[in-house]
Every structure is written in C-alpha cells, then in structure tokens.
Specification:
The chain is α+β, with helices and mostly antiparallel strands. It has eleven helices and seven strands.
C-alpha cells in the first residue's frame, strides 16, 4: 500500500505503540506475582503506588517511545515529499493499536459519562449533611440500598445512603468518612480513570486485570490505614463499621469512577483482620523505596541523555524504515 508522509507517520505511530505496549505488558504480566509479593512487605500506600506503576508502565513506556523517539526521528529525517509502500505487517500492527486505543478511550469516556449522570442524580435526590471537620461535601440520599462512596474525579463528593447513616454510630460514621477522605487525598478516582484509559495489550483481552485487582486491594488497605492513623481504638471502630455496612449488603451497581467503602469484590475478612491486628512498619520498606526512587531517577537521566544524541534519532529512523516495509 502506497501512503503519503502523514499517513505513514500515523501508521508507524500506532504500530510502534502496539508493539512496544505489547512487549512491556508481557513483562509486567510476568513480573506481577513477584511484585505483588514484594508489595505486601511495604506500607500499603507504597504498595499501591508500586502496583499502579507496574500496571501503567506499558502505557508510559509506549508513549515515551512514540512521542520521544519515533515522532521526532520521523519528522527530522524523513523526506516530506516522499511516498513509500507500507507493508502488511506494519498495517496490521497499526490497526490493532488503533482499535485498542479506540476501545480504551470509549471505555474511559463512558465511565466519565456514567459517573457524571450518577453524581447529578445523587445531588438531585440527596440532602447535604453537615459533618464537623469534614472538608468534602457529603450528600445523603434516601433509600435502603447501602451506599457510601467517594464519587467524582475533579470535584469529588461523598455520597451516603440514609440506611448507612442509621446503621452506624457517630464514631463509626466518622471513621468511614475518614476512609473516603483518604481515597480523595490519594486521588484514587483519578487513578481509576487512568487504568480505564490504559489500553489492553490486545483488544477484548484483559490480561492485566490481576494487577488491577491487586492495586484495588492495596488501595483499600491504604485508605484504611490513613483513616485510622495508627490509633488502635479507631482501628476497631472502622473494622466494626466495615462489618455493619457489609451486613447491609452491597450496592447493585457501582459507577466506574467511585470508591466505595466496601466494594462488591472486597476481601473484607482480610481488611478487618488488618485493622484488628495491625502489623508494625518494617524498616526494609523505607530502604526499598529509596532504591526504587534512585533507580527511576538514574533511568530517567540516562533516557534523556540518550534522546539528545543525534545517533539515537538516526538509529530509530532506521528501525522505522524496517518496520514500515
């Protein structure tokens, strides 16, 4: 297939993204069991960040290669007046990459639309609850369906059903709201949006869902730990609040960009055990954070230095020439 300058650039960008994304995704999938075991030795907040980084690494690396290497080398070294034939392998990779991006963008936009609709409905049906010391808006909605969640990304608010307000003591309600404030402080709904936006390695194949579930688990642990702040009495209070809310049942449907107190697929018994028998912070997690942070800083510096070398752009352009044919 003969294609002009911009069409080749678009095809090469999608093909390169797909190939790099698939390769790094396979690496993330292979490393996931060991990384999750390692994360269990860390503080819950650090563990959640580590697993999230593992999940988003394919997206970050693929975008870096396309925007930082592929695009500049093509614009600098490819003659603008030339037309070349694009091979079928390159076309196939570009097509799969374009489909994967289309699916992920549609999934993310649909999640935003559903979440906005649910938030408007809750604001219309709910009444503002004044909670001392509560910085986030709290809307109480009528009904017996149990719901306590942080809804929204950029202008979040806490939504709680009247059934939960009646079921919890003031101390339990304060601890539960503290859990949702922790989700807000960590920007967990924004991270959920990024996970929805990250394409699957292959369209209609969610091979990284195991990492998503691990991140969701560590995120709930982190929110519990931040809500109790090491207070043993508050830990017991939050544990009892979790049990009471779970006994009320789980909501029939949860909006995609919503952090609930007790998710439907939550390992509740593990969360309660952690709150009732908290483990002391291990010192090796701090050293490990320093090692990981140092490795990322060194790696970023080396990558930037590599991009600035003229020979790098030439080598990348040669690889693109092989790919397009």
């Amino acid at each position: 297939m003969i294609a002009p300058y911009l069409a080749r650039l678009l095809c090469l960008s999608f093909a390169t993204f797909f190939l790099v994304y698939m390769a790094v995704s396979l690496g993330s999938f292979a490393a996931a069991p060991a990384m999750v075991r390692l994360a269990k030795r860390m503080r819950s907040q650090v563990a959640a960040r580590l697993v999230l980084g593992l999940r988003l690494a394919p997206l970050g690396v693929a975008l870096f290669v396309v925007l930082g290497l592929c695009l500049p080398s093509y614009l600098l070294l490819e003659p603008r007046t030339s037309t070349e034939e694009i091979g079928y392998a390159c076309l196939a990779a570009a097509l799969v990459g374009a489909i994967a991006w289309t699916i992920s963008i549609w999934r993310a936009l649909r999640a935003v639309a559903v979440s906005l609709r649910d938030m408007r409905r809750c604001r219309g049906l709910g009444r503002r609850l004044d909670v001392p010391g509560q910085s986030l808006p709290v809307d109480v909605i009528e009904g017996e369906a149990p719901l306590l969640a942080l809804a929204g990304v950029f202008r979040p608010r806490i939504v709680i059903s009247r059934a939960i307000v009646r079921a919890l003591t003031p101390e339990q309600l304060d601890a539960a709201l503290g859990h949702e404030r922790a989700h807000w402080a960590s920007r967990d709904n924004l991270k959920r949006f990024l996970l929805l936006l990250a394409p699957d390695p292959f369209p209609f194949c969610s091979g990284l869902r195991r990492i998503d579930r691990s991140w969701a688990k560590f995120t709930e642990w982190a929110a519990d730990d931040q809500a109790v702040a090491g207070d043993a009495e508050r830990s017991v209070t939050l544990a009892s609040a979790l049990v009471r809310v779970a006994r009320l049942g789980t909501p029939a449907r949860r909006a995609p960009l919503m952090a609930t107190l007790v998710p439907a697929d939550d390992e509740l018994s593990i969360r309660v055990d952690r709150l009732l028998s908290p483990e002391p912070l291990r010192e090796e997690s701090r050293r490990l954070r320093m090692v990981v942070g140092g490795a990322l800083a060194v790696g970023t510096t080396l990558l930037v230095a590599l991009i600035l070398q003229p020979a790098t752009m030439y080598s990348v352009h040669q690889l693109l020439e092989h790919l397009v044919h």
